[in-house]
User: Which sequence fits this backbone?
């Protein structure tokens, strides 16, 4: 992947067009340097902000001595570009009327554009604001730029309330499901494929794992007034060594999105029970977050924005803020159902409306 | 893979030690240049042989004007080296008493050593002999060095009878199963793995293919007096793109080793029927060979060697000779059940006995 030199971003331009500019800066996880450079240099031109950088995480904040501080956070990485011919959710972005197509259009460069526009527009906000633009959200939790900052610059994550600008289609989404990944390893015995009876086929032996996953009915769990729908899926499979060898190994990667009534340990127990008899190893996990909407700061934000709260299915870093004691909600432009699809897109008005709601709340 | 310069091979040394020398020349398919160089230069030192080379296929023959001509053929490539720690069927070779371990020990550098020893020893054979040492046997049939030679030097494959020195443990094996490869492609629909219900999981959808393959009972088919046992297996599987995306594609590679009563087309029909409802594409096929032991030249060889013929399960190039109208059998040192295993080995006496049997027949 080639990082093009960061062009200057105009933070005072229309926020939908600013979104398009960000989409054109390809930033698949692990390759965020270019977009981070562009964001950092744009923010450093704003005299009312203190700016620091940690790796490819850029942070900026006002220091007005307000009685409340809020965090506005968003990740700057995306999942890999689509590979299917004709996919529009790719780089560079394209406009179709007022609809903007491109990788990250919903997840979540619209939200990042709103953060940047607010950073430039709100020189005198009613609450002090900390802006966090972070890397490595779309990969293993252990790589998270936000997690890294929580260790290296914890003072930057002190706040009364946080808004994560993940796509919620303009509604407020409380809490989030947790996520855990597992590797299921099936071992066989290699032999020449012309004498299969001398070996044990590790791909055939994987059939039962896939049958159990296919037949599993994911639960919907009621937590603090909201319904969290779970997902449990094989996301990768690989097995076999050569076209004439009975395969002696198959590895299935499983992703479990579990409701916030469970800890990662309970999620692991659940998957181990479902796949009993197989070798299951947990490789990654991040706890969910209960909605937390009863917290006063959260309630005040919901009242100001004026939308009915819903549950968040996808894991988001509200869980990380929640673990740090900072109540947090998801509120951002775009339809989360389009995230990671080949056809990812956002409507210009959705980005503009999100910006307007936050300007109203913070002015 | 680094090709070391070809050291001189001493074709008059003990044939078991000559086998060890060949094992030390790593020659995984596609990387046969080094061993082909060594074989070519050793053969060119023998004045009674005419030698030509085509790619990494080396051919040598006597021109004594005998009434019969026989081919002695063997491939010089091997499957990839084993990856498991402690595997002994690797490079370089090792001796344990009189047992020789190394990649290719059974499949089939013992046979190649016998060919080379015969080439040096038999300056006045009772039948004219054509020696063929060819590349790319352990990969797709379309790459076969023997197939290439059949097109470019067909005169080199004219003979009354052919012996392929594939491992048969000193017995004579007639005919061989055919082999065909298929790709089964399962298509789904990508979505974020936290909202699995928006996508279609192509790995879960592959479960039924694996169940059918796992539950399939391969047949044993009686052909011309011999029993051919079939094998039908998934040999590779790959699916999924990222840990948080519902996979939209899974590909399963299937290898069918079918009895010589079937054509490749009939084998394809059989697999299509078994996997009905799935997208199956045949990617490679090679017909089997009926035993052909009723042919006078084959019968004479069997009588001279004095062993009870058995069926050959693995596909070998007897099928290619059979298609050219040259009756052919498998006869070589080593246990075919060890071929392609992590622990491939051959006993020194097996190689010596094979050499002795052929010297007796041809002197």
Assistant:
């Amino acid at each position: 992947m080639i990082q093009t030199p960061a062009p200057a971003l105009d933070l005072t331009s229309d926020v939908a067009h600013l979104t398009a500019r960000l989409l054109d800066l390809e930033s698949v996880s692990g390759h965020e340097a270019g977009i981070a450079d562009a964001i950092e240099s744009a923010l450093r031109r704003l005299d009312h902000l203190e700016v620091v950088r940690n790796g490819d995480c850029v942070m900026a904040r006002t220091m007005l001595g307000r009685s409340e501080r809020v965090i506005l956070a968003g990740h700057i990485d995306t999942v890999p570009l689509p590979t299917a011919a004709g996919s529009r959710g790719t780089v560079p972005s394209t406009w179709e009327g007022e609809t903007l197509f491109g990788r990250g259009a919903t997840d979540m460069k619209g939200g990042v554009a709103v953060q940047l526009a607010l950073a430039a527009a709100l020189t005198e906000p009613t609450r002090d604001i900390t802006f966090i633009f972070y890397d490595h959200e779309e990969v293993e939790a252990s790589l998270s730029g936000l997690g890294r900052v929580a260790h290296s610059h914890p003072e930057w994550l002190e706040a009364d309330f946080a808004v994560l600008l993940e796509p919620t289609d303009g509604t407020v989404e409380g809490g989030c499901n947790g996520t855990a990944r597992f590797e299921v390893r099936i071992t066989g015995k290699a032999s020449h494929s012309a004498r299969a009876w001398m070996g044990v086929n590790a791909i055939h032996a994987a059939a039962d794992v896939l049958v159990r996953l296919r037949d599993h009915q994911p639960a919907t769990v009621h937590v603090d007034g909201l319904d969290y729908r779970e997902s449990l899926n094989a996301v990768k499979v690989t097995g076999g060594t050569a076209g004439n060898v009975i395969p002696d190994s198959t590895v299935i990667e499983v992703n479990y999105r579990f409701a916030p009534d469970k800890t990662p340990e309970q999620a692991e127990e659940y998957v181990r029970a479902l796949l009993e008899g197989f070798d299951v190893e947990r490789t990654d996990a991040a706890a969910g977050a209960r909605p937390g909407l009863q917290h006063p700061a959260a309630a005040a934000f919901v009242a100001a924005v004026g939308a009915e709260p819903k549950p968040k299915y996808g894991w988001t870093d509200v869980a990380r803020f929640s673990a740090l004691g900072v109540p947090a909600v998801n509120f951002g432009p775009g339809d989360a159902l389009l995230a990671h699809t080949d056809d990812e897109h956002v409507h210009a008005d959705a980005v503009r409306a999100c910006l307007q709601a936050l300007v109203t709340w913070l002015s």
